[in-house]
Write a structure and sequence with these properties.
With 302 residues, the protein is an alpha+beta fold. The protein folds into 2 domains: 4-130 and 293-301, Roll (Diaminopimelate Epimerase, Chain A, domain 1); 136-289, Diaminopimelate Epimerase, Chain A, domain 1, CATH 3.10.310. 21% of the residues lie in helices and 38% in strands. It has 6 helices and 18 strands. It has helices at residues 33-43, 88-100, 143-150, 154-158, 190-200, 237-251; strands spanning 4-11, 20-25, 48-52, 73-78, 83-84, 107-113, 116-122, 128-132, 136-141, 164-168, 172-177, 204-210, 219-225, 230-233, 257-263, 271-280, 283-291, 293-301. It has an 18-stranded mixed beta sheet that branches. β13 (219-225) and β14 (230-233) form a beta hairpin. The radius of gyration is 19 Å and the shape is globular.
C-alpha cells in the first residue's frame, strides 16, 4: 500500500451543507481486502468505498475477444470493522466524485457490488439516483423486544399502529416507527443493540417519526449500527430505501410515490435523502434512492 489518495465526500447534503462523510478510493484494483480495511480504519468514517474495474474476463490472445463488461465499475464498501455488501451514501459519494472529476458524464451506469448489479443514474445537475434491490420483508419484531434498546415504553411504540419490521433493499435493518415528537428522546443502549443485531442478523436499526402533512419531509430518521462500528449515522441510503418500501407496504399499498427523508439533525449534520418506489397491487416493482454530494478534501495515506 503506497500513497493511497482518499477523497473525502459529504453525501446527501442539504443546501450545500450537512450530509454524511465517506471516503472514496479510485483505482483500487491492486488493494487487498486487508489493505482496504486498514484504509477504512485510518479514515474513520462509517464507510469508505473502493472503486475497481469490472471486467468479466480478459482476452487471452489477440484472436480472443473479451466478454462484454457486466458493470462499469466494481465497488466495495468497508466500515472501520468489516466489509459490508452495500452502502448507499458511499455509492452516492463515489459516483458524484467520478462525475465532478470528469470521469463520467450524465447518464446511466451499473455498479457491481456484493449486493448484486445495481444501476446508478447521474442527472445533468449532478444529482445521483441509485437503484436498490427489491425489498425483502424479513420478519416482524415485538415492541417489547425493542423497548429496552431505545428507552421508549413498548405501549408508546405500539401506539403508532405500525409494526416494527426487518427489511432489506441491500442491507437488513430494523425499521422502528415512533410517535411524533419522540425521535430526539430515544436513549440507545449500544451494547444491547449490538448483541440484538448479531442475534437477528441485521446491520442495525432505523428509527423514524412521520412528519406533519405540511412538512417538506415525509419522515425524520435516525440510524444506529454499532455492530459494524457505527454508533449513529447522519445519512443512510440503504435504510431509507427500506423505509420507503415499509411506508409503501403499510400506508400507500399499490401506489408509486417519492418520499423525502431528513436524517442527521441530532448529530448536527442534517441530510436530505429522496427515495422513489414504484408499486402496484402485486407489490414494489422498483426502488431508488437519490441525493447530492460534494467533496471537501483529500487524505494521502502512506
Amino acid at each position: 500500500m503506497n500513497n493511497v489518495k482518499v477523497i473525502l465526500v459529504n453525501a446527501f447534503i442539504e443546501n450545500g451543507s450537512g450530509g454524511n462523510p465517506a471516503g472514496v478510493v479510485l483505482d483500487a484494483d491492486k488493494l487487498s481486502d486487508q489493505e482496504k480495511l486498514a484504509i477504512a480504519q485510518a479514515v474513520g468514517y462509517s464507510e469508505t468505498a473502493f472503486v475497481s474495474q469490472a471486467l468479466s474476463s480478459q482476452a487471452s490472445s489477440s484472436q480472443t475477444l473479451p466478454q462484454e463488461r457486466e458493470a462499469d465499475f466494481e465497488v466495495s464498501f468497508f466500515t472501520p470493522t468489516e466489509e459490508v455488501d452495500f452502502c448507499g451514501h458511499a455509492t452516492l459519494a463515489t459516483f458524484s466524485t467520478l462525475y465532478h472529476r470528469g470521469l463520467l458524464t450524465e447518464g446511466q451506469y451499473t455498479q457491481k457490488t456484493k449486493a448484486g448489479l445495481l444501476g446508478v443514474m447521474i442527472e445533468p445537475d449532478g444529482h445521483v439516483v441509485m437503484q436498490q434491490n427489491l425489498p425483502e420483508y424479513i420478519k416482524v419484531i415485538d415492541y417489547e423486544d425493542i423497548s429496552p434498546l431505545i428507552g421508549i415504553d413498548a405501549a408508546l411504540l405500539a401506539s403508532t399502529g405500525l409494526p416494527i419490521e426487518v427489511l432489506s433493499t441491500g442491507l437488513p435493518d430494523i425499521i422502528v416507527p415512533l410517535p411524533y415528537g419522540y425521535l430526539n428522546h430515544i436513549q440507545v443502549n449500544h451494547d444491547l443493540l449490538s448483541d440484538f443485531s448479531q442475534q437477528h442478523q441485521v446491520t442495525g436499526m432505523h428509527v423514524f417519526e412521520l412528519c406533519e402533512e405540511n412538512s417538506e419531509f415525509t419522515a425524520k430518521c435516525r440510524n444506529f449500527a454499532p455492530l459494524v462500528g457505527i454508533p449513529e449515522e447522519s445519512a443512510t441510503g440503504s435504510a431509507n430505501g427500506a423505509l420507503a418500501c415499509y411506508l409503501t407496504k403499510h400506508l400507500y399499498a399499490g401506489h408509486s410515490r417519492t418520499f423525502t427523508f431528513e436524517q442527521g439533525r441530532a448529530m448536527g449534520s442534517p441530510s436530505r435523502i429522496t427515495a422513489s418506489v414504484e408499486s402496484d397491487m402485486s407489490g414494489v416493482t422498483q426502488v431508488s434512492v437519490g441525493g447530492f454530494a460534494q467533496a471537501f478534501g483529500t487524505r494521502l495515506l502512506p
